[in-house]
Amino acid sequence: MIYLDNAATSFPKPETVYQTMDRFARQDLANPGRAGHKMALAAERALDDARHLLNQFFHGQGPERFIFTLNGTDALNMAFKGVLVEGDHVVTTDLEHNSVSRPLRAMELAGKIAITRVHADSGGTIDPDDIRKAIIPRTRLVAMTHASNVLGTVQPIRAVSQIVRERELLFLVDAAQTAGVVPIDVQSLQIDLLAFPGHKSLLGPTGTGALYVGPRAKLRAWREGGTGGDSSNEVQPREFPYFLEGGTPNVLGVAGLASGLKYIQEQGIDRIRKHEVALTERLWQRLEDLGGYELFGHRDLERRVGTISLTSEAIPATEIGGILDQAFDIAIRPGLHCAPYIHRSLGTFPEGTVRVSPGPFSTEDDIDHLARALAEIAA
Question: I need a labelling partner for 367 at 20 to 30 A (CA). Which of 60, 178, 192, 236 fits?
């Protein structure tokens, strides 16, 4: 199988991730506890070590501010439902994944908050000035993706963050498509809340993710329960990360996430991104020469990640996906990609597009094989 669906989840993982998880599962997979037996202490150290790695990688203001979650969606729900109160207004965009759009829309339909959704331009980029114009006196939060999971277009979050900070609002960034391939410094970029999964470009296993909570963001607890240390308090202890991490965490998954992060640091984040973007540009050129396919988003390689969307003039996206899977053994992702608002803006709703997203282990031969398959399908 030629796997080109890394925007959904990365595959394969680095060999060291598999080895780390196997070893950890056989030797140290206990319930973490700061005052327990040796295995419990080893599990606690694995969580602490991973937090330190994340804090260094994203330049956070303390490892305790990285809260482990089930995935990026869990992190986003924790942020929205922990920060927003009745009467708040949120500025967001039409590029968002449903993990942003749905919880916000549900709160809006319940009469709790109001939303303004800013539209991207024809190239798939948000204008920071449109964010500025959307802010009203009761705006509390600006929430936006760092890069579109449909178009691969990287957004100008530094410019947006300056606007947000000038207005003394909170800034949330969904880094699902950028964490691990685009440098993110939460302090320099003035990000208050950074949500990301561990299983995409961070190369960890599914069931992992984190939320960075900056000091300006004051959250209510998303879940309450055991914390492995403070068992006497009647309510959730206020100490981070335990205030937002009730229950047994996915220690095995976090060990794998830490291994994936180490691999990225060894390989170099810029090198990985350039490799993936070069492969999408290679496909773009092949299809441009071929004709019969429309490609979406701008072509500025400095403002993209390795994701590209296309449609055929004659064949629906879902049919192309099925043919590629069954006849050519190629895995891509057809459809709406959990981002219906941008597909409406593109005019590709409800059928969607064919999304191709190579990863660090994809090759030029993989792209050439896909291009030949698409040529055969078009013919």
Answer: 178
